[in-house]
Fold this sequence. Notes:
heterodimer, A: alpha/beta, five-stranded mixed sheet, 61% helix, elongated, B: mainly beta, ATP Synthase, domain 1, five-stranded antiparallel sheet, 10 strands, 0% helix
Amino acid sequence: MAGSQRVYRQRIRSTQSLKKMFRAQELIAASRIGRARDRVSMATPYSRAITRAVSAVATHSTQSHPFLVERTDTNRAAVLVVASDRGMAGAYSASVIREAERLINRLTDEGKEVALYVTGRRALSFYTFRQREVVSSWTGSSDAPTVEIADDIAGTLLGAFRAPADEGGVAEVHIVYTQFVNMVTQRPRVLRLLPLEVVEGVVEPGEAEALPLYEFEPSPDVVLDALLPRYVRSRIYASLLQAAASELAARQRAMKTATDNAEDLIRMYTRLANQARQAEITQEISEIVSGADALASAS
Amino acid sequence: MAQLEVDLVDAEGKVWSGQAHQVTAPAADGEIGILPGHTPVLSLLRAGEVRVREERGGAALAWHVDGGFLSVDSDQVTLVVDNAEPTTAGN
């Protein structure tokens, strides 16, 4: 009986130290999430300006840019999966990967060959463990992406999109990331990055406001040429930032739940330990009493 | 007198925004100066210096930029640049 009491005390101690870790992770995530959300909103003016400009040029440009037309010479499609570097974020990485798998299956069913690009150690280890080929990967900054990383990713993907078919060129670029809706909702999303689909965010040339007749310096086509890579880069950067905010929110929530569970466990084990102690005391008393009885009846 | 509404943004956020009298920027084929009432224009920028003068004859704010583009549309000036670094303005 003394044994079970000791076991319970041990469990309480280990659960308590786990709880401390969960609590610390929760606080770290909570302190970083504000900054991550600020960065999301700070990047918004840039992407809004660039989207507006791209739509303005696209309506004026005469020739169709390679970024806007479907490639027919290859059936390879690139998929960029944006997941986290660390776990302890509940189902965050798992749901991104599930969404990516769904997309990959769909593309394979359409007869396309999928080239994987991965950010975040979690997704990378998922694919390397299953011995799936990963073309490029970026790890180590999933919760605080920088412009440089976004540049690098955009450069790689644009390079693949521009490359000839026999050098690993791809006909489509998809990106799977987690959209930050609010603190409790983060939604995995699939976005087709290239070829660009409809350019949104233009002021509809309605009766009230007409799209201004811009003069283009030096020419619409050159401007479009310079704008589109920037546009792609800003889309990638925006999705990395969204994913980072989502990751931190998911981590905070998961760690909160873990802390609460640890508290529940501690409470339960404390009860069991008390019960065991009480049982032990009761047993000792009855042993003493029966021993005294036996002595008394013997004399 | 009409004023320009200026937004200077880079990938990480808004660098400067406010009203100004004159904006100069390194356009693709030469320095471009913008005063209120300019025709709508969308131009690429080279690496160079962007200057914003808040008042006529006043001191100018200046940034060194690595490139980007600029759009002007009914006195609304948007400069989208890579890497804006504040510099001390010359005249």
